[in-house]
Amino acid sequence: MERDAARADDSGRRLRAPVSATDLAGGPIPGHVACVMDGNGRWAARRGLPRTEGHAAGEAALLDAVEGALELGIPWITMYAFSTENWRRPADEVRYLMGFNESLLMRRRDELHEKGVRIRFAGRRDWRVPKRVLRRMDESIDLTARNRRCTLTMAFNYGGRAEIVDAVRHLVDEGIGADKVTEKAIRSRLYFPDQPDPDLVIRTSGEHRISNFLLWQLAYSELVFDEVLWPDFRRTHLFEAVRHFQQRQRRFGGVQ
Ligand code: FPP
């Protein structure tokens, strides 16, 4: 049942009242929400700005989404910040994104730490990631390692296929026989075996793709696609997605 009243904007278009955390209190809250932060480039282009300005504006959206997750009591959130395929972007943009992620950590890690957020990174620590970025990542991991209110995983130089390949490499290195290769054996060699699969995945900017995000873990996740461009995303969009989640019936291959 719809709980919020409809209202109208200046042009008479019916708008739903923004969803608040209390509207969601009666239903299940997802244990793990993962976001594909898409649309920064288009947000900037619409304003005649370089793409990098869109990424910079995405920082406020990221922080507000984390605040929203804390407000709802969501214990795990994963943000797709840079994929193994994003190295194909123009060199200037890649360079900017490396520096941006480094400076974002320097600027925000204390604040996240004070809020009880544990920061982790999923992805390959390969030679392409500058050493100084890896250093900031390690510092953020160490600083926040004991926090348990919420775990924020930044998927950085992350690819779902690469993660599965890395897990299989571990199995081969360990000399595991074919008969011992089970789902449990693969899962326990993913980057974070302790992390529950996402219950809800949100992709912004109207694109309906997974783009190599958490391929193993998304097997039964609920997907919500929002038209909003990432820099305009705020916790109310998260709440709206959770409301969709609460209206879904999850069957995991079984029957109701
Ligand atoms: C997947 O789309 C989207 C991502 C990997 C997110 C990329 C996000 C950023 C670069 C900005 C990060 C912003 C902050 C605030 C940290 P895709 O473009 O890789 O894949 P596609 O080509 O299938 O659309």
Q: What is the element layout, followed by pairings?
A:
Elements: E1 6-8, E2 14-16, E3 32-36, H1 40-45, H2 51-72, E4 76-83, H3 91-114, E5 117-122, H4 131-144, E6 150-158, H5 160-173, H6 183-187, E7 200-203, E8 222-225, H7 235-247
Parallel strand pairs: 3-4, 3-7, 4-6, 5-6, 7-8
Antiparallel strand pairs: 1-2
Helix pairs in contact: 2-3, 2-7, 3-4
This protein binds farnesyl diphosphate.
Farnesyl diphosphate binds near residues 80, 82, 85, 97 and 209.
User: What quaternary form is this?
Assistant: single chain
Major sheet: arrangement of strands: 5-6-4-3-7-8
Ranges with pLDDT <50 over ≥5 residues? Answer: 1-13
Number of domains: 1
Structural class: alpha/beta
What is the arithmetic mean of pLDDT?
94
- CATH architecture level-2 label: 3-Layer(aba) Sandwich
- CATH topology grouping: Undecaprenyl pyrophosphate synthetase
| Helix content, binned percent | 25-40%
The counted number of beta strands is 8
Rg from C-alpha positions? 19 Å
Through-space gap between termini: 19 Å
Notable characteristics:
alpha/beta, 16% strand, Undecaprenyl pyrophosphate synthetase, 256 residues, binds farnesyl diphosphate, disordered N terminus, six-stranded parallel sheet
